[in-house]
Design goal:
The complex is a heterodimer of chains A (172) and B (104).
Chain A (H helix, E strand, L loop, with lengths): L3 H22 L3 H21 L3 H26 L11 H24 L14 H8 L8 H22 L7
Helix pairs in contact in A: 1-2, 2-3
Chain B lengths: L5 H21 L3 H25 L6 H31 L13
Classes of the chains: A mainly alpha (172), B mainly alpha (104).
Chain lengths: 172, 104
Amino acid sequence: MMSLHTILFYLMAALILGGGIMAVISRKIFRAAVYLLFSLIGIAGLYFWMEYEFLAAVQIIVYVGGIVVLIIFSIFLTQTSSLDMPKPNLNRRLFAGLAMLSGLLLTITLILQHSFIPSLDPVQEVNVSSIGLKLLSVHEGGYALPFEVVSVLLLAAMIGCIAIAIKSPAQK
Amino acid sequence: MNQIGLTHFLILSTSLFFIGVYGFLTRRNLIVMLMSVELLLNSVNINFLAFNKYLYPGKMDGIFFSIFIITIAAAEAAVAIAIIINLYRRHKSIDVEDAEALKD
């Protein structure tokens, strides 16, 4: 008899994989975006299942609330959603499917052959305060430098977006 | 099979990764390709968190890697969509086959 915990994992895995497959093969681009949304929500559920509540919240805020909404906006801006996307030609699907299946089989065989030894270390409690303290710590094992670098990256990306998307006076 | 272990997570994330690879290789629409890249990044995130939970429960490194990957994914999506919209303005199409010349 499977416990509820186990059933929940399989439900979420089905949601993630089903959403992912439909997002990739659906020919209506708007539906593909909605399937991607379900897949990302499933991943957030998986983080809750692993008891990483902060990461699950970040996943929902950034991906579901940010990136998918951005993608849906750009779909509205760039095309008529009623039109089907052209079907990819058979050759391309065949070779992509072959590459995908061989890679998948190889990786899964490697995973199944390797025996992972679960660690018995004491579990470090992960909550917002421990993450925040570690993120700003400049001592050993702290993440202050990557934090600053990623802040600069975000600023650069923001300026880059404005520079790319802005209309030059000649275009107006 | 009843006890969920690291192997379950690794097989799940591998499947998700190769679904993303399939989408990236078959689709010619830039927005769908961007969505496939998001699937790839998410599968890597699942891996980091599962390794952190099962192999290094006393550390938090996997969590920080996931946080940084999420940040970089957000920046990447924003820049990619700015480029896609600019491309659409010039060529009236977001098919990669039509996007041979990025510079005018």
